[in-house]
Description:
By secondary structure, the protein is an alpha+beta fold. The chain contains 31 helices and 21 strands. The protein is elongated. The relative contact order is 0.11.
Amino acid sequence: MSAKTDFEQWNRHLLTASDSRFFRIMRTYLGDIKTPFNKHRLITRLNAFLRKPETIDRLISLIDRQDARVLTAIALLCEPSVAGVHALFADSTPYLRLHYHLLNLEERLLVYREETESHDIIRINPLFSERITELVVDSSLLFPTVSADPTRTYLSRPSDARVIATVAFLIRAGVVLRADGSLRKKARDRIVSLFHEDNTGREYDGTVALIEALSALGVITASDDGRFSLSPPRWRALCAMTPASRRAHIAAASPTVDSTDHRVLAAAIRSCLAALSPDTAVTDETFERLLRAHGTPVVCESEAASAKRRLLALGLLVRNREGLLLASQECAFETDLSPRSIVVQPTFELNVPFGITAEEAWFVPFVADLLVFDTVSRYEITRNACVRAFEEGISASGIAELTSRLSGVALPRNVRTSLDMWEQEYRSIRVFRGTVIVADENRRHLFEHDKRICDLVERELAPGVYLVRSRAMDEIRRLLRAAGVDPAPRPVLIDRSEDTDAEAALRVPRLENLPEEAMLSRAALGGSSPAASAFDGKRYRETVIGLVGDALSKEQLAELDDRIARKLILAPHQVRDLRPAAEVVEAKGFDFLGKIRLIEQTLAAGDDLLEIVSGGEEKPATITVKPDSLEKEGTDLVLICTTLADGARMRIRVRSVGLLRRRRGSVLG
């Protein structure tokens, strides 16, 4: 966004603010407003005051470390929602404390929030954004890092070679799972033998994590008897993605993440791993905050912790001796390994190097069984394995072409001969599943001459018997009517069992490439900008008190102390024109009319809040709410409000309130 557009948004925000908000901020920073007045001129005066170098220097000098953390979050998240900022600090700052901190930053005009159709967004004031970026924004305040020696995990999960080998093993391993869904001992022993798996001393079981991920993605499906089958369309979709997106999808997938949230978490993982450097270590808290920062919408705190555990299990994150987290270097060098060509031996052995990509070798589970997983994995091309390829429409010549393309040489003659023989045996009896149309002789000309009907036909099984392509039945009947078949016949159901494939597809995540750009670059993650200088609150108060030429009344001194605490004094005229707030801010006990008046004033202000303390003597509860309306209910008055913490709607009898305080919402919005 251009600087001109930023300033236009800021001015428009001031101009469209409610009168109570507008004049509150003008009187705070410009002093007394004389009538007649013009809003445009007042905004010009305010911007001129705020642009003065001494004003900016004073404003920047009042930024303390906590201010810098929140401003850094807003700057790095690029116009975040209020909920997004709250979620980023969920592990360290209570909701209400951060809420009031954001309101204070608004009062000080460092930031402003703007309503959109879906949520509020927070922007840094363009008048100060350049200086804040230069002197305040420091990503190390949010994401502290330490230098560390990179940890290499050459066979770490989920490398493409590992994923291919795991799929090939599972779909040929027979009964793998117990009735409760856990791995059988025999299957686990076989995994240890094939994959050199040793979970001794590991925090998490990587094999289980990978199997759960592939299951959650719908790539493999477990039957009731504990066997796994492969979903070719979803396997092809997974292999067609970029390596980074593929790893992110696998790391995000688990039985607890539904298809709606999966893409959000996968995109956050993709961006987070891209932002981490293999020679930079972070704490668990920092990494989870990184995940929450990259989520749009926000990744919740519990899911960030679960995702971190899966990334550790899958080997995308590793721990150093100090227990800090590092990104695995495998992602950076895996595809640089050589050789990357496969080798097919006359003994039907297929050698697949570790550097192969899933996009290149997606067909391996269709043609071969896994023998050994290693730097160069060994598979065996078998007839039973090739049946999977034939079932998916891959011919013997197609298998020969795929393998020859990666090996650079033609298949050994005996292997090619066996492939042709296996295919001939497989296709000697054919079973079709689909929609069949039977046409009488006088209607067969439609299937020979009408292009719309011809496009439907997959093959002619016998004279007048046609297997049609998979289409919705309504579409088939529409095309028949368009060709002159009216009325178009309804299908005759032979097997009334419902096909649940479409329903199952709705429950599994979409498999597609994720954004390649990280929200936080590695340079930003390093904390290249200097942090704000330490704020000297005592000196600031002495300076402001020193600006008072004449003695102030008790009410004015109270108002001055309040503004000093909120860091709102930037120039002498703000002290000379000081006016104490005239509004009633508290009502308690039996002051029923005072409570009503306070609620009505808060409703009229539009943006202020109410702090309510229940009337009970034992452990009175305190909540902060946004008042919506005041309604009569019998002989009582009831406050209709929304809680600030969780957005819940409440009805509160005014007589039951022990103490009612008016809390300032925001100066501008």
